[in-house]
Amino acid sequence: MNTVLFRDIVERYGVTQVAALRWLIRHCLRNPAAAYSIHRLYNDLKSQGHAIAKDTVYAFLEHILDSFLLSSVPLATDSERRRNSNPRKLYPADTGLIGAFDMGGRANTGHALESAILTEIERRKADIGYVKTDEGHEIDFLARYPARGAELIQVCSDISNEATLKRELRALREARDIPHKARKLLLVLTHEHALSFIGTGIDAVPAYEWMLPDEGE
Asked: Measured between alpha carbons, how far is 15 from 22 in angstroms, rounded to an integer?
């Protein structure tokens, strides 16, 4: 992280507020898969005593994304105004960074799995967004592929808890105004989890199986 910070951002862009930039990076890496707006990040930095302009926060975030330290996922919408006015979800480009920067000793398996899924979707060159249903619930990813339709993807590392499973499926079942041929997927951690799931119109697939390339790829 320090190599990227100094070589790819500070030296390249002539950043002088290094402490604020370092805090921003650490904050995002400690809260993977969280949604952030520039306004929220600006307020968080101000609360930490950093005197910084909102435009600078915007520039910092773009520098971090350009350095491939983080990836961002916008709201899935055809409206440019809505996409720009809604928070983006931020993910570490390397799942190893989650454990390296988490201060609470949490396993963070769910966030690591979600980040790994995003990396694979990006590798497949899909147009990516997250979905908010009319009821206000969230679907992790809408992936629209150049030549093979779309997938609505919910990621859950453990569906053994009934309340967790209900929460993860709720948004998929509510999804409307989505490409009608989009496959609805629940990506889980193990084959056993997939076998234990029964859902109408929703496929539960182990994440590692979904990541395997199709024949001929």
From this structure: 11
What the chain holds in terms of domains, given with CATH numbers, is 1-94 (1.10.10.10), 107-217 (3.40.1350)
On whether the CB atoms of residues 73 and 128 are closer than 8 A, the answer is yes
Amino acid at 93: A
Environment class of residue 114 by beta-carbon count within 10 Å: exposed (0-12), middle (13-18) or buried (19+)? buried
- φ, ψ at 128 (rounded to 5°): -120, 140
Question: Above 80 in pLDDT, residue 71?
Answer: yes
Which pLDDT does position 215 carry in this prediction?
53
Beta-bridged to residue 71, according to DSSP, are 91
Tell me the CB-side half-sphere exposure of residue 27, using CA atoms within 13 A.
Answer: 19
CA distance 217 to 148: 13
Tell me the Cα Rg of the chain. Answer: 18
Alpha helix positions (H), 48-161? 54-66, 80-85, 96-101, 109-123
Among 53, 70, 51, 54, residue whose Cα is nearest residue 9: 70
pLDDT tens string 171-182: 888 886 676 678
Provide the total of helices (H) and of strands (E) in the chain, helices listed first: 11, 8
* Cβ within 8 Å of residue 152, ≥6 positions away: 131, 139, 141, 142, 172, 175, 178, 182, 183, 184, 185
Q: Is the pLDDT of residue 155 over 70?
A: yes
